[in-house]
Specification:
Blueprint: E1 2-15, E2 18-23, E3 26-32, H1 39-51, E4 55-56, E5 62-64, E6 72-77, H2 99-115, E7 121-124, E8 132-146
Parallel strand pairs: 3-6, 6-7
Antiparallel strand pairs: 1-2, 1-3, 1-8, 4-5
Length: 150
């Protein structure tokens, strides 16, 4: 699995001119599922993201986790995180999991994040939809995860 996490002040996702997910201070996670991903990849990523200490403490050091600051989470499915750009100028996405399987993993990721009781709110986009994602990045702080390389 691959994820790009952005720490944000606020974010929202719009589908067909309608806001379908919206958060305040927290994380936006763009989540890509690879064709070889497993439950252990999913569990690893949930654990890392729910415990990530990248919010400032009273000394302005990134030391606080999402729960301690009542952070919120917005999850956006994004198969393009598995783009292969090694040949030519048109990427292929052959390393992405097929949509049926990928949707199950994205749904499980959201469920498991909710079950952790780490985030004050968990919102998401719509799997497979054409989404407009608006993020007010805080920092900026962006962290890339790849469960096959960590």
């Amino acid at each position: 699995m691959r994820a790009v996490l952005e720490r944000c002040n606020k974010a929202k996702v719009i589908v067909n001119s309608e806001v379908v997910g919206e958060i305040n201070k927290g994380f936006v996670v763009f989540l890509g599922i690879g064709k070889d991903d497993t439950e252990s990849d999913l569990d690893y990523l949930v654990k890392k993201i729910c415990g990530l200490r990248i919010f400032e403490d009273e000394n302005n050091k990134m030391n606080l986790n999402p729960k301690s600051v009542q952070a919120e989470l917005l999850v956006i499915s994004n198969f393009t995180l598995f783009a292969n750009t090694s040949h030519g100028f048109r990427p292929d996405f052959l390393d992405s999991m097929m949509p049926e399987g990928a949707k199950k993993y994205v749904d499980k990721f959201i469920e498991k994040c909710k079950a952790q009781n780490t985030f004050k709110k968990v919102a998401s986009g719509i799997f497979g939809a054409d989404m407009e994602v608006l993020v007010s990045n805080d920092g900026p702080v962006n962290i890339i995860f790849d469960t096959k390389r960590e």
